């Protein structure tokens, strides 16, 4: 077999790609400018600006901004879904972005959270309790965290891709238990999942099925709180330990970072956030069955994190928004949307391997790697 | 505060606008309602038009489309719009679509949702919006027992199809021992459970398969070991096709009896003509050519093919709403009471709903169909014995 | 737990489990080859396999063999088998190459983190299966029967059919040929050298990109062979069959020790058996639960799989 013929073609294609990249790199430089200018602003101004952004998102379902709302489906519902995806991405970012553990079965924790609320809360379930919704949420988080520890305990000693396939297996096992267990009731599912409490003055429920905006505002609030919490963690001793583990686990261990303990913490916290998002999803949906928790969705979660920029909160948020919003916005192209989505994943990753909004530290690492690659090419030639 | 903040604030909506503008082309403005009183009513189709379950949804959509087009041809001064909500049969997408329908006050009736799973997720929302629905295909019995006033069903549910399939196996196949398989879906499992109940002691073994599974050797081994002379399969054609092929390759010749989810040319394509030959499917749907009136000919003329499963039922469902619009029932409340008191012949049956929204027991028809020479041909109408 | 059924049918379950496992093993080779060389999970390999099933189908249609044709004579059957193999191998090989050129090579040039390869692979996988889904109307396509399945020999209670025996033998022959190719030929030595230490290999004058292309082609051809056997055994293909089988094959590769050719064979056969026995014991609905649980348990005791990872050191 001969490969001689493709050398000139490759360089022509390569030139084109390199040209595009130059344009892209100029844009990245501009972005870095924005970043440093942002950091130069006084703290008060920065907080005010963030608050203004938050207010904008709270108002979003009420603003009639052209082209943003989804024409073929309910906009507030889509916003709610987007918020849930963002929460998932924030949680998964702890595992992948901060601790560097590839978890392909994150949907498993999402499912555990969702089913916890349904099993303990739905009057249709044989294990129904009389606990109010506000009690069910901490229960769901706790159950998810425990499941994270159960999965992590025996498997976190595995490295890299072995961990990936084991977590993927875990996600499938959770789904199959949901399919086959009499209590989760498979595809027939569990109806009457409780919604958050609260009533309008006229007696109709605050979190009703017709208007999803209260759900969206609730989810958005939860997202903002969790982001704040994760940011604090990231800058704490725990966060620095995660980074150390991600960069080089052996070195971290030598420096006195108990890597297993911190990896388990990352897993548990990630699982808890996944469970919380699942619980919100189930409360809104009012009915859940085993169909909602397939591996493909799990893979999309990972895609959201890496696409946006693993390790950077703004990045993973953008990734999650794109992954959940675009398919709903372009329902008109239903037949083709996953095709375009797949192509978009390839294109974005080729031009921005560090993600759309990279973590600063990761961007530096990547620049190093690229330099190495160039040196290698020169050395090879 | 200072101007920097203002500037950065201004940037955000602009950025979002740009993101939105990328897809402006797909915006098929559905807000072109003219305010001409009651001549802008809409009915909606709710079900899968794309994705792996699209075949069935398209049959239903076509049936409803035919009804609406015929109506519009006769009433060109007061046309009705058929809105389509493509759920892809996905429970996750269903609630938002149902809300979208509820929020459009011009929509007075829904044909669908097509599957039982998405019905669970969507019907409660339609109920809150007081938006009447008639499903032409969701057959899970529990749907009618949730106290949803808006729920109506144009065909018999699993509780009537299951016993009919069982009596077919008993009386026509004359089987002694039956192996019952389901595919864990709401539909397949629900029906298989009904069949098991009716067969009682004749059940000689059970197993489940998974959606999207393609190798069935463990199940085939179980069927073989059970020495059953008939199989009931509750599920869809995608899995039934290769299952039957592998069953016949293993020299298991038990009679294969299944349900309307398997009543699709895809079954024969999957199993191959030789393996599929003689298989039987039951369906609470009438054969297209058994429909009264000119439906069969009209459908064939419009779509260039014979009506598929549930096409006639969807045609009837849409016509109930169209009759309501014709009678001036353009509010949802008026439409709901119109549907509840409907009492008229359709092309599939005499249409009259009981208080749960089920079609009257005496009107339920279950047909069996047989695979002959690679075609699904009508066999007999099964008289419900129980 | 249905031990009675398991033991009454252990023979049949073993034979069919091995033949399913042989298909897993051939697909697993693609994962293992690429992983051994580049340390990356070629997530799109599942679609390479799926394209192979269609490749064989189209090749048959091209020579006038359709689903419901009568069973051909023995010489014609051999011709058709070869035609199907060529069709499947070409389609799979071309798909594997396309994935390498479009999704991986640009990233390698930038020395991107490994996680990024995973995402482009997912993108490629989605794009390929969706494109095929749209092109085929998401229908399923039946395969022509090339021979009638008959029981050749009965050992105890095990009915060995010509189909199962053929699949197992064909898979093992393919694996042995590949193993010999990697271990005995000059090109194979190149692959092993790059797998062991790509920088040193480059210094020794090995064209790394050429070796990578060769590896993707080899993985593709093996997936094509698996696709042909799958067509014969399962008899149906669809645009979305790849994902599940890919996950299974990847599991098999990890089970045996990813990066290890003989591990892929062992892992594939073991997974096929575990699935069949698990289905018999707990019911088919628990099959995948059993498979993954066994994987977790084995990895806990042997963290790099049954045989460990070593494409570079494949020569024992």
UniProtKB/TrEMBL annotation, chain A:
Key word Transmembrane present: yes
GO CC, one annotated term: plasma membrane
Keyword Transmembrane helix among UniProt keywords: yes
Organism expressing this protein natively: Actinocatenispora rupis
Membrane topology: Multi-pass membrane protein
Transmembrane regions listed in the UniProt entry: 43-63, 75-99, 106-125, 131-151, 163-183, 215-233, 264-283, 295-326, 338-357
Protein name: High-affinity branched-chain amino acid ABC transporter (LivM)
Short name of any one Pfam family annotated for the protein: BPD_transp_2
Automatic annotation (TrEMBL), chain B:
CDD domains according to UniProt: PBP1_ABC_LIVBP-like (cd06342)
UniProt entry keywords in alphabetical sequence: Amino-acid transport, Signal, Transport
InterPro entries (alphabetical): Leu-bd (IPR028081), Leu_Ile_Val-bd (IPR000709), Peripla_BP_I (IPR028082)
GO biological process: amino acid transport
Classification via Pfam families: Peripla_BP_6
Domain Leucine-binding protein per the UniProt entry, residue ranges: 42-363
Residues in the signal sequence: 1-23
Coiled coil: none
Family under the similarity heading: Belongs to the leucine-binding protein family.
Official protein name in the record: Branched chain amino acid ABC transporter substrate-binding protein
Native source organism of the sequence: Actinocatenispora rupis
Automatic annotation (TrEMBL), chain C:
Compartment(s): Cell membrane
A biological process term (GO) from this entry: D-alanine transmembrane transport
GO molecular function, one term: L-leucine transmembrane transporter activity
Keyword flag Membrane: yes
Family assignment from sequence similarity: Belongs to the binding-protein-dependent transport system permease family. LivHM subfamily.
Entry keyword set: Amino-acid transport, Cell inner membrane, Cell membrane, Membrane, Transmembrane, Transmembrane helix, Transport
Topology of the protein relative to the lipid bilayer: Multi-pass membrane protein
Protein name: Branched-chain amino acid ABC transporter permease
Lineage: Bacteria, Bacillati, Actinomycetota, Actinomycetes, Micromonosporales
One Pfam family from the record: BPD_transp_2
Keyword ATP-binding: no
Assigned GO CC terms: plasma membrane
Regions that span the bilayer: 22-41, 48-66, 78-103, 115-136, 211-229, 289-308
CDD domains to which the protein is assigned, alphabetical: TM_PBP1_LivH_like
